[in-house]
Design brief:
The protein is of the alpha+beta class. It has one domain (6-168): Alpha-Beta Complex (Cyclic Phosphodiesterase, Chain: A). The protein has helices at residues 14-31, 50-62, 92-104, 126-136, and strands at residues 6-10, 40-46, 67-76, 84-88, 116-120, 142-146, 148-153, 162-168. The strands form two sheets. The chain has a four-stranded antiparallel sheet, covered by helices on one side. The chain starts with 5 loop residues before the first strand and ends with a strand.
Length: 170
């Protein structure tokens, strides 16, 4: 499965990044799936000229204040990019950031925002997903501060994705 366009991400740093990156890479090796960087997608599948996306993302970042994201429950779905994930608490600052992003990019018709951090992308059988949730812990909790938006070109498969720029909040 491949993506198209650009994505705006909130990425953990430090120890949380290292732990989540190690989990994502471990499961990718075990399951034969693509590894990727740990992130919570603020807005995905943004299509426009890159220069316009950069300007809009910079303005969006300037409108946000630092906050924290808490990941608190392991779950799975039948969706490729939400195969196995950690749910993020729907805190007001996170939900407001998504609304501002949808307005900034004219994506008000975007699917309902379900903040999460994926651990596995793919079409994996339910028994494997349940085993991983048991391993991770159904109530695994991670928290990390957010003070910037990372813009990625997410066209193609995860190994083709590339970082464009980071935009710090003011």
């Amino acid at each position: 499965m491949k993506c198209e366009g650009y994505s705006l991400w909130f990425m953990p740093g430090g120890e949380v990044r290292d732990e989540l990156k190690a989990l994502i890479e471990k499961f990718a090796r075990e399951l034969g799936t693509d590894p990727f960087l740990p992130h919570v997608t603020l807005l995905g599948q943004v299509k426009d000229v890159e220069a316009h996306i950069i300007k809009k993302t910079a303005r969006l970042a300037n409108s946000l204040n630092a906050f924290s994201i808490t990941l608190n429950e392991a779950a799975y779905s039948d969706e490729y990019f939400r195969c196995l994930y950690l749910s993020a608490r729907k805190e007001p600052a996170l939900m407001s950031a998504n609304l501002k992003a949808r307005v900034a990019f004219g994506k008000m018709d975007a699917a309902r925002f379900m903040p999460h951090l994926s651990l596995v992308y793919g079409d994996i059988d339910v028994s494997k997903k349940e085993r991983i949730i048991t391993e991770v812990g159904s109530s695994a909790e991670y928290s990390f501060p957010v003070s910037k938006i990372s813009l990625f070109l997410t066209s193609g498969s995860p190994c083709q994705w590339r970082h464009i720029e980071d935009f710090s909040f003011t």
